[in-house]
Specification:
The chain is an alpha/beta fold. About 35% of the residues lie in helices and about 10% in strands. Strand 3 and strand 4 (about 105) form a beta hairpin.
Length: about 400
C-alpha cells in the first residue's frame, strides 16, 4: 500500500441570461413528463434509466456534507492518547462501543454497519484524505467531488467513470452534484412537494398521444418511474435520508435499474454538542443504509456503497463539547460485493508528534486512490481508464471486492 504524509498528498493532488421558451408540442410533453416523474434532468435521460443487465455491478456514492468526525465514529480504542485528547467525548457514549478488532471500535449507533462487518459486508478505511489543504466545507466538498487534484465545477469523477463504461447514474438531489456533472448518462430525482396530478389527466394525455409513438413512450416511461417511487398518501418527510435511500433502492433494482447513484446527507459540522448530534446523525445514516440494502434485495450482492466526507476534525475536543475543522477522516465501504470484515488504512497515531500540524489526524492514504481501486476491481477499469478518472493517483493493490 502506498503511504504518504499530508504534505505529500497535497503535492500529488494539486496539479444568465434566460432564453425565451417556446412551448412546442414536444417540449410540452417533456416538461409534463418531468413534472410527473419528479425528475429535474431532461426527459431524454429517462430512457437512459433502462438497463437490461440486472446483474451489472453497481456503485452508490454517499457524501456526508459537513466533515464527519471519524475519531468519534471509528474509535481508536488501542491508542492511549485518545482519552487524553478527548476526556469528555471519549466518555460520552451512551452504549458500549462495538469492537471491530483489537485496535478499533465502531460507534454504538451504527448497529447495522456492525452486523455487516461481521458478515464481511462493511470495511472502514482510517486516516484518509483527498489532499485538500484548507478548511472550507464548500471547497473541500467540491475538491472531493471533482477528483482531479483541483476544483472543476463541471467535471466530476463519477461522471468521468460512467462516461468511460457507458453506464447510467441517478443523483437523488434537487440538482446535479459536481460528482456527476459532465455526463449525459445522469438523471436527478427528488421528492416533490407539489400535489400529484389526477389520474384522468394522465389518461387524457395518453389518449392525446396515442398516434405518436415517441410521445406515448415518454409518457409511459414517466408514469412507470413515478409508480416506483411515489407511495400512497402524503409523506411530509420524503426528503429524509432513510426515504431517499428507499427510493434509491427502487430506482436501482431490477431490469430497469441504473448502474450507480449518489446520495447526500448534511449536518456533520459538529463544533458543539457533538456527542448528542452524532448519536442522531449516525443513527440516521445507519438506518438509511439499512433501508438501501433491504430495498436492493439480491442486487445488494452486486453493490458497493462508498461513504465519504470532505475532511476530518481536530484530534482534540474543544471547549463546547465538539471538534473543529481538521484534516484526515475515514472512508466507509459497504455492500455485498465488498470483501469486508477488516479495517483498512495505516493508523498514524495520536501522539503530539504524530499529528498533522500538532492538531489533526495525519492522513496516510489518498481517498482517490481507494476510489480508483474500487473502479479497477468492481467495474474492471484498466490503468488507462483509471488515469482518465484520477490522473494524479494510482490505485492500491488491496483486495476490496469479494470477486473482482
Amino acid at each position: 500500500m502506498k503511504e504518504c504524509n499530508k504534505k505529500q498528498l497535497f503535492v500529488e493532488t494539486k496539479k444568465s441570461s434566460v432564453e425565451s421558451l417556446t412551448l412546442s408540442r414536444r417540449k410540452f410533453v417533456q416538461m409534463a413528463g418531468a413534472s410527473l416523474t419528479l425528475l429535474s434532468a431532461p426527459m431524454t435521460s429517462i430512457s437512459a434509466l433502462a438497463n437490461t443487465n440486472k446483474t451489472q455491478p453497481k456503485i452508490v456514492w454517499v457524501v456526508l456534507r459537513g466533515a464527519l468526525d471519524s475519531l468519534h465514529t471509528i474509535i481508536p480504542t488501542a491508542d492511549t492518547e485518545y482519552k487524553q485528547l478527548r476526556p469528555k467525548l471519549s466518555s460520552s457514549f451512551k452504549e458500549p462501543l462495538l469492537a471491530l478488532n483489537k485496535s478499533f471500535s465502531l460507534h454504538p449507533s451504527l448497529k447495522n454497519l456492525y452486523q455487516w462487518y461481521q458478515n464481511k459486508d462493511f470495511m472502514p478505511i482510517v486516516a484518509v484524505s483527498s489532499g485538500y489543504d484548507r478548511r472550507s466545507h464548500f471547497d473541500g466538498q467540491d475538491f472531493l467531488e471533482t477528483g482531479l487534484g483541483e476544483i472543476d465545477y463541471d467535471n466530476g469523477w463519477l461522471a468521468r467513470a460512467i462516461n468511460i463504461k457507458k453506464k447510467r447514474a441517478l443523483a437523488l438531489a434537487r440538482s446535479t452534484p459536481i460528482s456527476l456533472r459532465e455526463s449525459e448518462g445522469v438523471n436527478t430525482w427528488y421528492p416533490s412537494k407539489l400535489k400529484s396530478a389526477d389520474e384522468d389527466i394522465y389518461q387524457a394525455l395518453a389518449k392525446l398521444y396515442q398516434h405518436d409513438e415517441t410521445l406515448k413512450s415518454i409518457l409511459l416511461k414517466g408514469l412507470e418511474l413515478r409508480g416506483k417511487v411515489v407511495e400512497s398518501g402524503t409523506n411530509k418527510k420524503q426528503g429524509k435520508f432513510v426515504n431517499l435511500s428507499k427510493a434509491c433502492a427502487k430506482l436501482m433494482s431490477g431490469e430497469q435499474g441504473v448502474d450507480c447513484a449518489m446520495l447526500e446527507l448534511g449536518g456533520w459540522d459538529t463544533h458543539n454538542n457533538q456527542a448528542n448530534r452524532l448519536d442522531n446523525k449516525l443513527t440516521e445514516l445507519d438506518n438509511g443504509l439499512a433501508q438501501l440494502k433491504q430495498g436492493l434485495g439480491q442486487e445488494w450482492n452486486n453493490t458497493v456503497v462508498v461513504v465519504a466526507t470532505e475532511f476530518g476534525r481536530t484530534a482534540k475536543e474543544n471547549g463546547t463539547g465538539g471538534t473543529d475543522h481538521g484534516t484526515a477522516s475515514a472512508l466507509f465501504l459497504a455492500g455485498g460485493a465488498i470483501d469486508g470484515g477488516k479495517v483498512e488504512g495505516n493508523w498514524p497515531g495520536l501522539a503530539d508528534h504524530q499529528l498533522f500540524e500538532q492538531r489533526d489526524l495525519m492522513p496516510t492514504t489518498d481517498s482517490f486512490a481507494w476510489l480508483g481501486t474500487i473502479l479497477a476491481q468492481h467495474w474492471q477499469f484498466n490503468d488507462e481508464e483509471l488515469n482518465h478518472v484520477f490522473p494524479h493517483v494510482l490505485a492500491y493493490k488491496n483486495k476490496l471486492i469479494s470477486n473482482p
